[in-house]
Structure formats: C-alpha cells, structure tokens
Design brief:
Elements lengths: L3 H10 L1 H28 L8 H24 L13 H7 L6 H5 L6 H29 L6 H64 L3 H20 L29
Helix pairs in contact: 1-2, 2-3, 2-7, 3-7, 6-7, 7-8
C-alpha cells in the first residue's frame, strides 16, 4: 500500500522524476511572479496602496522558482520542458480564471473589479498551495535536501493566503460582497477541475518515469477522481469562505531572500 509520503519520497529519490517535479513547480511559480509583477504595475490609482503587497507576492513567487531551480542545480540536474497538460497556471487561464495575460501585457490600468478577480483567484489557488505545502512540510520539513525550501515556501504560501483573505474582506466591507462570492465560486469550481486534470497528467508522467505497474497507476488515478468527487460535492466550500487571518498585513514587508543552496 502507498501513502502520500511514500509517493513523494519515491519522486524525490529518482533524478528524472525529481527533475520533472521541480521543473513543473519552478515554471508555475515563475509565471505567478510575472503575473503579480504586472498587476502591481497596473493596479488602479484608487488601490495604489496595494501595489507594494502585490509586488511582494510576485517577488515571493519568483523566489520560489529560483529555489526549485537551485534544488535541481544542487543535484547536477537541468530543467526539462513542462508538458502542457501539467501546466496548472496556463490551464487556469484557459478556463478564464484570473486576469487574462493579454490584459496584463497591455499598459492600461486595471479596474477595481479586475483587482477583485485577481484576489479571488489568489484566494482559491493559494488555498491549494498552502495545503500542499503544509503536507510536504509535515513529511519533509526536516529532510536534509529539501526541508529548508519546503519550510520557507510553506510559510510564504500561508502569508499569501492570509493576504487574500484580508484584502477581500476589505472589499466586501466596501459593498463588493456579491461580486466576491460569485467570483470565488467560479474560481473554485474551475480550479478543482484543473487540479484533477493536472494531477492525473503529472501522475501519468511520473508512472512512466518510475515504471509503476498498471494497477498502481490505476489506483492513483482512482484516488484523484475520488478527491475531485468530494471537492465537487462539498470540498470546494473551503475555498470560498472568508475570515480575518490571525496574521494581519502578511505581505506588508519586504520579501525574504532565497536561501543559498549552491
């Protein structure tokens, strides 16, 4: 029988599976860094006070991308191209979730509605990231090779989630509650579909690299479908609730520099 811990340990122990895992993670984080950088530059004048926090969010994401590249370099590995079916951020954009890249490439100020869409997207995706990193921190927080990276990224994702909660509650108090709840629901339902599809694609690639027997791959796929069924029924609600975080102003300071791995 396999567990999440044994699954990730197997991926970590093999150079080729580790190479693919870090390449996918680095690509997604770097994309998030670019998106937040553009949003911070285009935020409307009425919300300019948010710009440093959005920029900090982007700097954190860029840092995470560098960390994954450094982990590869430390093992003497180079990144591999990310298979399109595993590209979480690209697939979310195709679903119309978040702000379209075409909009972000233009030098036109965003609207308040755009900012709410961005924050709702962050609220949903950072929930996923925070949960995933918490799991990795629980299993590998003390790992000699990846433990420091896992702890740092996990803390950053928790901060990003807290920031999204706090800013959305501020907009809700200003009368934007209906728009926020509608947007959160749309984001959450699309995200769980994309997460299912990406999980299936990533596990298929890992199975080929690691030579998993067909029965094991089928069992993993069944587990992914079961998680989706639960999330489609009720689990998505955790992604749309809003509560004031204990850690207020979580992105109010400068980004923490990446550790030196090489």
């Amino acid at each position: 029988m396999f567990s999440a811990k044994s699954l990730f340990q197997e991926i970590l122990d093999d150079d080729e599976s580790f190479r693919l895992f870090c390449s996918i993670a680095a690509s997604g984080e770097s994309q998030g860094g670019w998106e937040n950088g553009r949003i911070s530059a285009l935020v409307p004048q009425s919300e300019r006070a948010m710009a440093p926090k959005i920029a900090r969010h982007g700097a954190d994401e860029d840092k995470h991308g560098r960390i994954f590249h450094a982990l590869l370099k430390k093992r003497g590995l180079t990144p591999v191209p990310v298979p399109p079916e595993t590209d979480y951020t690209m697939l979310l954009e195709r679903e119309g979730i978040g702000l379209a890249h075409d909009k972000l490439r233009r030098d036109e100020p965003l609207t308040v509605r755009d900012v709410i869409v961005y924050l709702s997207h962050s609220r949903v995706t950072e929930q996923r990231a925070s949960e995933q990193m918490e799991m990795l921190r629980r299993y590998f927080g003390d790992h000699p090779e990846v433990g420091r990276a896992v702890r740092m990224i996990s803390g950053d994702e928790d901060n990003h989630l807290a920031y999204a909660h706090e800013e959305l509650l501020r907009f809700a108090a200003a009368g934007q509650g209906r728009l926020i709840q509608r947007t959160l629901r749309e984001c959450a339902l699309a995200e769980i579909r994309v997460y299912r599809d990406v999980s299936l694609a990533v596990m298929a690639h890992m199975g080929r690299i690691l030579g998993w027997p067909r029965a094991r791959s089928a069992a993993l796929a069944a587990g992914i479908h079961a998680v989706y069924a639960y999330e489609r029924l009720a689990g998505w609600h955790r992604m749309v609730s809003l509560r004031m975080p204990e850690h207020r102003n979580a992105l109010g300071g400068p980004a923490t520099p990446a550790p030196e791995y090489v």
